[in-house]
Automatic annotation (TrEMBL):
<keyword id="KW-0804">Transcription</keyword>
<dbReference type="GO" id="GO:0003677">
    <property type="term" value="F:DNA binding"/>
</dbReference>
<protein>
    <submittedName>
        <fullName>Transcriptional regulator</fullName>
    </submittedName>
</protein>
<dbReference type="InterPro" id="IPR036390">
    <property type="entry name" value="WH_DNA-bd_sf"/>
</dbReference>
<keyword id="KW-0805">Transcription regulation</keyword>
<dbReference type="InterPro" id="IPR002577">
    <property type="entry name" value="HTH_HxlR"/>
</dbReference>
<feature type="domain" description="HTH hxlR-type">
    <location>
        <begin position="15"/>
        <end position="96"/>
    </location>
</feature>
<dbReference type="Pfam" id="PF01638">
    <property type="entry name" value="HxlR"/>
</dbReference>
<keyword id="KW-0238">DNA-binding</keyword>
<dbReference type="InterPro" id="IPR036388">
    <property type="entry name" value="WH-like_DNA-bd_sf"/>
</dbReference>
Amino acid sequence: MSSKENAAVSQLLSLLESRYAMRVLWALRDGHAQTFRLLQDSVGGITPNTLNTRIKELREAGLVNHGTDGYGVTASGVDLLKRLNDLQAFAGKWAASQAKKK
């Protein structure tokens, strides 16, 4: 992997590691736009200030947009969520194998 690719992966992981960033994306994964209030309820436990910050960061990253119906994922966001589904499947298998070791 080139240094540019490493930097891109690092930058993306840094964004996704931000508190609630993954939960915001996950709440929007069904493709239906959500208003701010609905998104806040979907994420659960997030303050309006933190949600505003995460939305701003995710919009700047091109993963989330705002339309007339509310917030939704962009084409890049959909692509990322598809790839994260693969990670989720791997994580389930990995966790099961770790549990067998104990």
